[in-house]
Amino acid sequence: MTLSLSLTVNGDRHEVHLEDARPTLLDVLRERLGLVGTKKGCDRGQCGACTVLVDGRRINSCLTLAMSVDGAEITTIEGVARNGAMHPVQAAFIDNDAFQCGYCTPGQIMSAIGLIAEGEAGGDPERIREGMSGNLCRCAAYPGITEAVRDATE
Ligand code: FES
After folding, report:
1. Ligand 1 atom closest to Cα of 134?
2. Containing domain of residue 32, as a range?
């Protein structure tokens, strides 16, 4: 039996047909829709590299069955720039040198956008670090990441 899944991703509507209910949102985004900006790090909810927004809330897409978000609005890193201009969080990451290898950066940026929208962290570095604690950076660019999120919050 084929399952039908409807997703709006970065404003574009997609109908995806799945053989079964097992594919994760991460695999559908990367392998079916070609949106490879969302990264697969651990594939088990530990690193945050796969963070996307589902109806405005940040989630680990590797832990989310695609069928569970049928009908949802998804935002990935490919969808945050507008009219050729970077999202303020993207610009803040560049201004603050908030990456080294860059592999975790899409997830960091999506998590930061979600955190700022939640309005919980304000500009407080400690709360930003706590709010971003689900996103690991093997290069340990954490000071720059915290500064970038703080700048983007102001
Ligand atoms: Fe999803 Fe690591 S790939 S949390």
Report:
1. 4
2. 3-79
Q: Point out the domain boundary residue: 79, 111, 132.
A: 79
Q: Give the model confidence (pLDDT) of 12-35 as tens digits.
A: 999 999 999 999 999 999 999 999
9 and 61: one domain?
yes
Domain total of the chain: 2
Ligand 1 atom at minimum distance from 42 CA: 2
Q: Please list the residues that pair with 24 across neighbouring strands.
A: 65
| Last residue of one domain, picked from the residues 79, 97, 127 | 79
pLDDT, tens only, 46-73: 999 999 999 999 999 999 999 999 999 9
Q: Is the CB of 106 under 6 A from ligand 1?
A: no
Instruction: Indicate whether residue 25 lines ligand 1 (CB < 6 A).
Output: no
Q: What is the DSSP string of 3-60?
A: EEEEEEETTEEEEEEESSS--BHHHIIIIIS--TTS--SSSSSSS-TTEEEETTEEEE
Pick the atom of ligand 1 nearest to 62's CA: 1
Paired tokens of 118: 């939640």
Ligand 1 center–CA 15 separation, angstroms: 24
Within this chain, do residues 59 and 16 fall inside the same structural domain, yes or no? yes
